[in-house]
């Protein structure tokens, strides 16, 4: 499940081999120095930070490792039977064209929203004198259970939560510019930070040689 920390650059289009257009997201992925090696995880850093903007305890941590300060630090599960050392850099060539990845990030915040937009309610009747078109309506019974269940779908703040898009296909890997093009959209806004890991549920199809 090894992966990289990245930054969403934006969306564009590329041509496939059959000349069809594919919508892709450009991600600046890595290089990510290894900051710590644990039993099941490794700690990675991403995006250079100015020393004056880093707290002293954290700055001392980076100086002890002889690594330039980073803005983002994340723990990622490491691959079995692979040795990692503090100071090693993981780059975008960790992935190959045709691989499938899972991309996690913070979704775009949409502020306070009503139930119909937030939870895709159908809405009430629009004819015969009804006045409950977009209202919440009944949220419980006065007898049994006599209360509102926790987690009931209600109006409230929408977005700005961690979201993961699974099984996105890697279209292109640009090692020189640390760029990764994946098919489709990813969570978050432009310049938002992402974690890109190898897909858990889907693997790239290996070409079978013809006899």
- The named CATH superfamily of the domain at 3-53 and 63-109 and 159-198: Translation factors
Average of the residue pLDDT scores: 88
What is the 3D shape?
A: globular
CATH topology of the domain at 3-53 and 63-109 and 159-198: Elongation Factor Tu (Ef-tu), domain 3
CATH class term of the domain at 3-53 and 63-109 and 159-198 = Mainly Beta
Determine the number of helices (DSSP H or I, runs of at least 4 residues). Answer: 2
Number of strands: 12
The N- and C-terminal alpha carbons lie at a distance of 34 Å
Query: Mind telling me the C-alpha Rg?
Result: 23 Å
CATH architecture assignment of the domain at 3-53 and 63-109 and 159-198: Beta Barrel
Helix content: under 10%
Question: What is this entry, summarized?
Answer:
This protein has helices spanning 56-65, 115-119, and strands at 3-15, 21-29, 32-37, 41-48, 70-77, 89-90, 100-106, 111-113, 156-158, 162-174, 179-183, 193-198. With 211 residues, it is mainly beta.
Tell me what you see in this structure:
The protein has 211 residues and is mainly beta. The protein has a domain at 3-53 and 63-109 and 159-198: Elongation Factor Tu (Ef-tu), domain 3 (Beta Barrel), CATH 2.40.30.10. It contains 2 helices and 12 strands, in the order ββββαββββαββββ. The protein has helices at residues 56-65, 115-119, and strands spanning 3-15, 21-29, 32-37, 41-48, 70-77, 89-90, 100-106, 111-113, 156-158, 162-174, 179-183, 193-198. The chain has a 6-stranded antiparallel beta barrel. It has a 4-stranded antiparallel beta sheet with strand order 5-4-3-6, with no helix packed on it. β1 and β2 (21-29) form a beta hairpin. The chain is globular and about 70 Å long. The model is unreliable at 207-211 (pLDDT under 50).
């Amino acid at each position: 499940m090894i992966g990289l920390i990245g930054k969403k650059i934006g969306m564009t289009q590329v041509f496939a081999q059959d000349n069809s257009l594919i919508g892709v997201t450009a991600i600046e992925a890595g290089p990510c120095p290894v900051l710590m090696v644990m039993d099941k995880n490794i700690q990675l850093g991403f995006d250079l930070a100015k020393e004056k903007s880093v707290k002293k305890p954290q700055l001392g941590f980076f100086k002890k490792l002889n690594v330039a300060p980073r803005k983002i630090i994340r723990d990622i599960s490491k691959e079995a039977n692979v040795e990692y050392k503090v100071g090693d850099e993981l780059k975008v060539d960790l992935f190959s064209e045709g691989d499938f990845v899972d991309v996690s990030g913070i979704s775009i915040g949409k502020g306070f929203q009503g139930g119909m937009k937030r939870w895709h309610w159908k809405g009430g009747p629009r004819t015969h004198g009804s006045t409950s078109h977009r209202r919440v309506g009944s949220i419980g019974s006065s007898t049994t259970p006599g209360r509102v269940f926790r987690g009931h779908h209600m109006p409230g703040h929408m977005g700005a939560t961690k979201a993961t898009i699974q099984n996105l296909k890697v279209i292109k890997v640009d090692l020189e510019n640390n760029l990764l093009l994946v098919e489709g959209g990813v969570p978050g806004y432009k310049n938002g930070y992402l974690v890109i890991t190898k897909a858990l549920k889907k693997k790239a199809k290996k070409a079978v040689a013809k006899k």
